[in-house]
């Protein structure tokens, strides 16, 4: 959501296999399909997955590719962009796929730091604990794209599954991933040249958990880091203690644009976290992966140093707030999900039962 009323989403509509680009103007109760028309025509022939980035109420970018691994199509792959809330879309110049050795072409993530600078990560193949990717970058708002790295070019390790990509400015970016049991530490790589070269980032071990990130634990980064402003950001590290078969989850924060990271405890071993600013944050989760014993919503007002429970729930999922009172969660229970909303800072939640309207 970009404010209390307006927001975007990528989701499916019953009866269709395409992941649609959707937009709401009433706080999430109703949604309109604003997917580019040529993409919807193409989806009749193949099931399409969608990766998108929503900058504000009007500006967005989206790329579409096969939901299932299949050979790289001969048709052109483009990135779509809109500046009027999805009423009109323009296609970029085709992404350069010349010489690209790939099993398939699946969109991963799209990220922009401002209107001109953006990146797209696509997945090209997998197997033997590898996730082969290519990263494209634009400096003209998405009109043209340069291939920065691919499995044959660049030094980003292709081992381990990639969970996200983030940039703070043109030079500084990160790729995150999961390597359970393959290597100590976490898959966390940084670039200082827009994505052409990458180096590993070592995270500090919490003082109260000296074996974290060591051989006795399997750790991963479920998402890319999130930056609240030009200096402050956060990310989550999830770990499993092999011998004890127990899980832990830590919040890592930075105050210097990602140069250094500091660990802090999270209230539960599994769950999702969101920060509105440097101090105000929410966490929803529980002690077990399937949340058999339910979940709780927690609140912090000191940047995650202390948390207190707000409400007892039966679901978890991605959180977003636009101010200290109004927020949403994509609430997931088993295989089902819905959109819930709060107007009192997370103390109580209402099921919006969202619908897509013509």
UniProtKB/TrEMBL annotation:
It comes from the Bacteria. CDD domains: Sialidase_non-viral. InterPro entries: WD40/YVTN_repeat-like_dom_sf. This is Photosynthesis system II assembly factor Ycf48/Hcf136-like domain-containing protein. It comes from Levilinea saccharolytica.
